[in-house]
Fold this sequence. Notes:
The complex is a heterodimer.
Chain A: H1 14-34, H2 47-64, E1 67-70, E2 74-79, E3 85-90, E4 94-101, H3 103-107, E5 110-117, E6 124-131, H4 132-146, E7 163-168, H5 170-178, H6 181-200, H7 207-227, E8 231-235, E9 240-244, E10 249-254, E11 259-266, H8 268-273, E12 275-282, E13 299-305, H9 306-316, E14 326-328, E15 346-349, E16 353-358, E17 363-369, E18 375-380, H10 382-387, E19 389-395, E20 403-409, H11 410-433, H12 435-439
Antiparallel strand pairs in A: 1-2, 2-3, 4-5, 4-10, 5-6, 7-8, 8-9, 9-10, 11-12, 11-17, 12-13, 14-15, 15-16, 16-17, 18-19, 19-20
Helix pairs in contact in A: 1-2, 6-7
Chain B: H1 3-6, E1 14-16, H2 20-47, H3 60-82, E2 84-87, E3 91-96, E4 101-107, E5 113-117, H4 120-125, E6 127-133, E7 141-147, H5 148-165
Antiparallel strand pairs in B: 1-2, 2-3, 3-4, 5-6, 6-7
Helix pairs in contact in B: 2-3
Amino acid sequence: MAPASEAHRTHPLSALLQGLLWGAAIVAGLVWQVLDFDDPNWWALAAVPVGFVAGVVAGYVGWFFTRYVIDEQEIRIERGVLFKSSRRIPFERLQSVDINEPLVARLVGLAELTIEMAGGSESRTRLQFVTLAEARRLRRLLLARAHGSELAEGDPVPVEHRRILHVVPPDQVIIGTLLSLDFIVTVLAALGSLAFGLFTETGWAVLGVLIPAVWGVSQMILNRIVAQWNFTVSRGDRGLRIERGLLSRSSQTIPYDRVQGIAVVEPLIWRRFGWARLDVDVAGYGVVTDESGGISSTTLLPIAPRDAADRLVDVLIPDPERGHGDRVAPPPRSRLFAPIGWRFRWLGSTRSTVTTGTGWITRRRAIVPHHKVQSVEFSQGPLQRRLGLASVEVHTPDGPVSAAIPHLDALEARRVTFEQVERSRLARRSTAADVALGGGVEGADELAGVQPPLGQDDLLG
Amino acid sequence: MARDDLFTSPEGNWTPVSARLATARGLIASLVSLVLVAVSVALWLLLADLMDGWAWTLWAPGAIGIALATWVWWWAPRNRRSWGYAEAEDDFLVRGGILFRRLVVVPYGRMQFVDVTSGPLARAFGFATVTLHTASTSTAAAIPGVPLDEAARLRNRLTELGESHGAGV
């Protein structure tokens, strides 16, 4: 066992980086101020060095008062001058560890460590900045501890072997973006505003319409290409790793037993080419609001041929019976609620997973392992009651995966609800008895001891 | 199958919530309607002469208030009766709502924490709202009108069951 661990500091260059980042943010904010063609506010540029200096000072003070300590149970991060804050992250609560290298930091070999815990909006902890080597060492250590290993802090953490599962080539990201619905909508909107501008404006004023239109479209493509450059998914002993990025690199690690559910998304045009996107629910990642993003940490695979996507699903949520379970679908009288969509809705259940399918423009499949189900909801509105229909919803932690099937036959919905409750109960029991069954991945027996406690101090009221 | 059967679980005994929940809601609505009637009276006294022919519209707030109070007194007991919770072997069940009915089944092991909240008025009537939270915000199973001592018992019991069934996230 390790002796009482000493406190560590982040890298001194953090202060300078903070200054650069603040300065850059101010430049970005000022671009439009200065580009106002009628009356350029050149004096506003003076705010840039001010922002830079303020950032450096704030960064230095922040750095000076930041410490992190790792002991047997937890990692503690202490910061703050006037308002001291100390955050403890017990290892068993840890959901995932990410390393981000924003461009500026990457140039000087520094990285940011992001640690996710379950629950709440405050569940994300950032450690800015440490050297890349230190970030990697911390990640290995944290993930090893999260899996119940009792490595001391000074001990060398064994380097794990990784196997690459899938690499998304950049040209596929580009083609996928060009053929995505949201891109086409953006282009149409830009063209529309441009046409409107050409009719109403004259001379140089047209630029005021042209620049934002071109900017919006090109930014969307560039953002995705830059963020998803060399998108690589690999598997190791401790979890799945996602690495991506051209300028800013990011590297996420999701322990296998923290995957709460996966969504297979097949948009209209992609379906013709047999492509799909994968999104993942991990407690703590939370809800991603912008549908267009594809750059968020909940993206498991931005675009891939369907069989490659299915293989990845099989690695994360193995189910030998996939596609062979019982299926239920809404009756034709639910047409009132979804004139076309009702035909595309279904719920299938096997011994280990529940899968729902929805959508006729963008087709989605949500796959949730029974032992990860949080709660099950059965509901009925007034119109549904009249038609003898009811809805079932399987709750998963907040994220892109939503396993719900609305407007089933009321009696069938009730049966599905209590069957789901029973299946989840059996799955939880067999998982507790034999984690290998639930996890079904290499190194699964290490996970047996990992059970976040529900302590008295969690209770309010 | 009757409506009530649809929302009744195969196992567990359903506990209703306090009847005082309906009384409290009715009283609040009555108070609001009293204020609205007072507003109408005041408006009448001040403006009736100025609005020849249209003066009757000044009674609208009072009429709305009385309609609201009547409706709440009709609705509250029905809504109160629709709420209930049951402790099954491995799960906790909550149901409620008249127009939009909802039944949520929460496994004990999935509960992250239990909230007991009660405002000054609810405390005066001796009840509280108990809310169960899991790692999913859509769970949000809230039971209104649980008597205070029962709320405390429920919280402790659920915490205890949560610990013994603990299944992690």
